[in-house]
Amino acid sequence: MGTGRRAVPGPLWLGVGLAALLGATVLGVSAGAASLTPAEIVRELLSHLPFLGVESTLNERQRAVLVQLRMPRVVLGALVGGLLAGAGAAYQGVFRNPLADPYLLGAASGAGLGATLVIVYGGAAPAGLPLVPVAAFAGALLGVMAAYLLGRAAGRGGTAPLLLAGVAVSSFLTAVQTFVQQSRIDELQRVYTWMLGGLGYGGWEDLRLVAPYAAVSLAVLLGSGFLLDLLALGDEKATSLGVRPATVRLVVISAASLATASAVAVSGLIGFVGIVVPHLVRRLVGPDHRRILPVSLLFGGAFLVVADIAARTLVAPAELPLGVVTAFVGAPFFVLVLHATRSRAG
C-alpha cells in the first residue's frame, strides 16, 4: 500500500535522518545560558582523541557545563526519541494502525504507577540506585505483561483482544495511581512533574541504566522489518511463506514494549513522538519497514532533541515540561492523522 507517489530510496533518507540527528545534537549542546559555539564543542571533543594534537578552548566551567549537563541530556533525548519512534513504528506495523503508539498496552499507566509509588512511599534510595526510573521501568513492563496475558486469555483472534486488554489494564492502573496520589496530596507536584516528562534530571547514570535494555530492544526491532512486511500481506500469506504470525507479533510487541519501558523510565511520559515520527517517515520512505524502522529511530531522536531545546529556551530561565512541547506539536498532528484515516475508511 503506497503513499500515492514514488518513495525516495531508503539510503538517502538514512543519510538525511543522520544529518538531522547530528544537527540537532550540535544545536542541543550549544543552546543555553552558557555560550558554547559549535566550533568550541567540536574542538573539545577532538581534544580527547589521541594523536590529533587538537587543544580545547573551553575553560573549566564551560567544560563542566558541556560534559556534565548538556551532553548527557542531549544523548538521553536522542535515545528516548529513537526508542519511542521505533516502538511506535513497530506497533503501527503489528496492529496495522497509524494511530497505534508506544503507550498502547499499559506501559504508560504502569510506569506512572511505579513512579508514583516510589515518590509517595519510597523514602530514601540506596546509594547509587535511582529508584524512580527503576520503578517506572518495572511498572511499564508489568503493565504490558498484564495486558498481554489478559488479551491472550480473552481470545486468539488477532490483535483486537490485546488492544482491549491494554485499555482495561491502563484504566485499572491509572485508577490505582489516582488513589495513591489522593492519599498523599503533598506529593502531587512531584508526581505530575514526572508524568509531564522531561530530561532535566537525566545524566550519564540514567544512560547506563537503560543502555542494555535499549540495545536489546532496538536490535530486535531493526531486525524485524522484513517480518513486519510479511505480516502486512495477511496471516495466511505470511504462514505460506514460512512465518508464524503469532510468534512474530509476540516478539515485536515485547521488544517495542521493552523500548517504551526503557524510555519512560528515564524521561517520564512523553507523548506523540511514537505517532508523529513514524507516520511522517512512512510517507517519506514508503511502506517498507526495513526502511521505516531505522529512519524513524534517527528522526525520532532529532525530533525530541529539538523539542527539548524549545522546552528549556522558550520561557528561560524557567523550563517547560517536555511532554507539553511534544503535545503542542503532536495533538494537532494526531487530529490530522485521524481525519485522514477516517477519510480513507469512508
UniProtKB/TrEMBL annotation:
Pfam families named among the record's database cross-references: FecCD (PF01032)
Topology in the lipid bilayer: Multi-pass membrane protein
InterPro entries listed in its UniProt record: ABC_BtuC-like (IPR037294), ABC_transptr_permease_BtuC (IPR000522)
Listed GO CC annotations: plasma membrane
Lineage top rank: taxon: Bacteria
Bilayer-crossing regions: 12-36, 71-91, 103-124, 131-150, 162-180, 209-228, 248-281, 293-314, 320-340
Range of residues in the leader sequence: none
Main location: membrane
GO molecular-function terms, A-Z: transmembrane transporter activity
Entry's Gene Ontology BP terms: siderophore-iron import into cell
Keyword annotations of the record: Cell membrane, Membrane, Transmembrane, Transmembrane helix, Transport
SUPFAM superfamilies (alphabetical): ABC transporter involved in vitamin B12 uptake, BtuC
Subcellular locations according to the entry: Cell membrane
Family per record: Belongs to the binding-protein-dependent transport system permease family. FecCD subfamily.
Name recorded for this polypeptide: ABC transporter permease
Organism phylogeny: Bacteria, Bacillati, Actinomycetota, Actinomycetes, Streptosporangiales
